[in-house]
Amino acid sequence: MLCLWLAMVANVQADWPGTLAPLTFITEEYPPYNYIDNQQLTGESIDLLEAIFAATKTPLSRHDVRYYPWVRGYELALSQPNTVLFSTTRTPARESNFHWVGPIAQDRVVLLAHHDAPVTIDSLPQAIDQGLSVAVIREDIGAQALLEAGYPENLLVPAIDNRSALSMLTRGRVDLWAYSEDVAAWIAESEGYPKDDLIPIHTLSESSLYFAINQATDQRLVTLMQQALDRVLAERPQR
Questions:
Q1: 14-33, pLDDT tens digit by residue?
Q2: In the prediction, which pLDDT does 10 show?
Q3: What is the pLDDT of residues 45-64, one digit of tens each?
Q4: Can you give 168-201 as a three-state secondary structure string?
Q5: Which of 231, 148, 23, 11 lies closest to 3, judged by CA?
Q6: Any residues with CB less than 8 A from the CB of 238 and at least 6 apart, and which?
Q7: How far is residue 227's CA from residue 211's CA, in Å, rounded to a whole number?
Q8: Could you identify which of 16, 43, 89, 115 might form a hypothetical disulfide with 34, taking C-beta atoms 3.0 to 4.6 angstroms apart as the criterion?
Q9: Are 190 and 183 in contact, with CB atoms under 8 Å apart?
Q10: Which residues contact 172 (CB under 8 A, 6 or more apart)?
Q11: How far is it, in rounded angstroms, from Cα 95 to Cα 89?
């Protein structure tokens, strides 16, 4: 019996890679957390992921991370085992769709108006009553928050990506843009707009960003990644 048990343990250990190499990592443009600069992926979450790779002796780097539009990355993370999408807002509606490793950072999602067309509202029902159109990115937390709150779909205008949504707002094609306040400000500045061009007028959510992992992924990989993240964060200098 002892020999049989030892053989079973040996087989399990042989099947267990001990690193995060079986995982496929997907990200998008979501600065300052993950974005491309000088043709290279960079940002706070990218640096954190590379530290996790080092902590787990995983033979991967930022060059192995796939860079896709948000909708494609989100759909892949939902459908493909061993797929990790980041940086992803963890919400009650998404909770059962993924395993979660984090948190990475805090994020505030808001409705943004352009300073040339100021809008004032006290609530979402007021925005609905005024018939305010909102630029959204499909499957993004801003779009999901509005739909969950009962915002009419005919007032939601899909954008291909965040820069497209910014263009829609600044050109007056929509009244508002639902997006992360910090990321929207970063994108606007990178496109040459002044800091005060975008005005947050209503908060949709304040949540944490995580690595979202496909539900069919081996729990041992999820645990390994969370433990590595905890170690990396514990060893970082306090700000």
A1: 445 689 999 999 999 999 99
A2: 36
A3: 999 999 999 999 999 999 99
A4: HHHCCCCCEEEEEHHHHHHHHHHCCCCHHHEEEE
A5: 11
A6: none
A7: 13
A8: 43
A9: no
A10: 114, 116, 117
A11: 10
